Amino acid sequence: MSSAPPGSTTGTPRRPEAARSRPTDLATDGLPTLALRGVTKTYPNGKAALREVNLTVPEGDFVFLVGPSGAGKSTLIRLAIREELATKGKVILEGRDLARLKRREIPRIRRRIGIVFQDFKLLPNKSVRDNVAFALEVTGTPRSRIGPAVDRVLRVVGLSAQAGQRPGELSGGEQQRTAIARALVHDPRLFIADEPTGNLDPQISWEIIQLLLRINEMGVTVLMATHNAEVVTALRKRVIGLEDGRVVRDEIGAAYHRED
Ligand code: ADP
């Protein structure tokens, strides 16, 4: 196993003293889950949202993506799920250059990624169970496999007892758990959480973070964009900082704010 931390535009990530003993750089023998190579994204209006971004997220990593509003976090996520294509450079998911996928390959690659957002995006008229099942139904999964898969992820997120309730009958934390279950039901290799605690109070935020840590322990790579300084600082995971479209820091075992 290499002890070299993942690459970054700023060179080798710093390892603060407190982080040294932690086994955070989970380099694997396999391919990185996500890699960006010299990625620039310029929107049609001329706005450069990402500039020459290089980063590698190895399999099994847990990464916080931080930076002020407008720094390019959502753009990076949109590129990773191939909602947008890079203007320059390569976005590589499990060894596949996303710009070179055939149209018919896109749905299968997308299912390698589970994603949740700040605003849950649940279907209001469907129960918890049906919200999760729907994600499998739209991909043509046989009915006989849907039930057991839904039961399994509802157990993982601790919502088996609420399976029959609709989103309007759930707390914010339970709604986010439902969204997490839906994102997990395809067995993704990369779990992206875009401000998942943005609408939740601190206690519930911690519960959601604990769940993301558990998902990571199950072997799923986690990339979480967040402004939640308390959570980032407490967990001492890898922190990638974006500012004005550039990677300005990439540190393992870091706090939300730089400590130097
Ligand atoms: P963040 O998620 O860190 O807030 P974004 O990726 O949303 O940052 O935005 C990065 C920059 O790109 C911002 O200046 C934003 O205004 C701009 N931007 C984002 N989406 C678009 C778009 N579809 N068209 C033009 N500019 C955009």
Q: What labels describe this entry?
A:
globular, alpha/beta, binds adenosine-5'-diphosphate, 260 residues, six-stranded mixed β-sheet, four-stranded antiparallel β-sheet, Rossmann fold
Task: Tell me what the structure shows.
The model is unreliable at 1-28 (pLDDT under 50). This protein has a domain at 17-112 and 188-251: P-loop containing nucleotide triphosphate hydrolases (Rossmann fold). With 260 residues, the protein is α/β, with parallel strands linked by helices. It contains 7 helices and 10 strands. Helix 5 (172-184) packs parallel to helix 6. The two termini are 30 Å apart. It binds adenosine-5'-diphosphate (ADP). Residues 43, 45, 47, 49, 67, 69-75 line the site of adenosine-5'-diphosphate.
What ligands can be seen in this structure? adenosine-5'-diphosphate
Named CATH architecture of the domain at 17-112 and 188-251: 3-Layer(aba) Sandwich
- Structure summary, number of beta strands: 10
Principal-axis shape equals globular
Query: Which percent range fits the helix content?
Result: 25-40%
Strand content: 15-25%
User: Can you tell me the CATH class of the domain at 17-112 and 188-251?
Assistant: Alpha Beta
**CATH superfamily membership of the domain at 17-112 and 188-251:** P-loop containing nucleotide triphosphate hydrolases
The helix/strand order is: EEEHEEHEHHHEHEHEE
